Amino acid sequence: MNGILYGVGVGPGDPKLMTYLAVETIERCPVIAIPSEEKHYGVSYRIAEQMIKDLDKKECLSLPVPMTKDRQVLKRSYEEAAGQVAERLKAGKDVAYLTLGDPAVYSTYIYIQRIVTAQGYDARIISGVPSFCAIAARLGDSLADRQEQIHILPSSYDIEEGMEYEGTRILMKAGSKLPEVKRILKEKGLAAVMVENCGMEDEHIYGSVEEMPEKASYYATVLVKGNKK
Prior knowledge:
five-stranded mixed sheet; 6 helices; 10 strands
């Protein structure tokens, strides 16, 4: 019997935000997979190891993905990763792929799942707390009230059009394009807050565009509410 691939969301950073189902699934799987060269460099691994006893004794597949928008390069990387996962599934081993936040939100995992399921293997998603939900809790406010809309935007792409949307705009992974994000917010007169590394030891909260630094980690999220300051 073939194994099952699980995409396991470990939450935004605080290991206590991992769900019971996530912990149980990882404990049960003999193989884990991470999107990193070395497991101890993987943020999702470092979160999980605080909740999973003897995690370091499990077989670990290091499946790094290059930081590029070249779709051909990414396609090859996903196929290579899926090949390694499929080898374990064919051997009857369940694999838990650890991903930050939730596997259904801008996650590398889903591309690997699509390849694996196309080959006839079973795959399941274990939801995790998304970073923007944890950030709203950390700030003590809602993401939206009543009829307000929520828009989730990847900051590594063009966000300028999205700034015209009504309601709350969530700018994911803003650290890599922070100078550009700040420029657009200032030009449009928009108020925003940013939380960097939410729930982690090096968490930082910036209460305005002016407070935001020019550089931030990959795990920086900006919340924009309303249309003008």
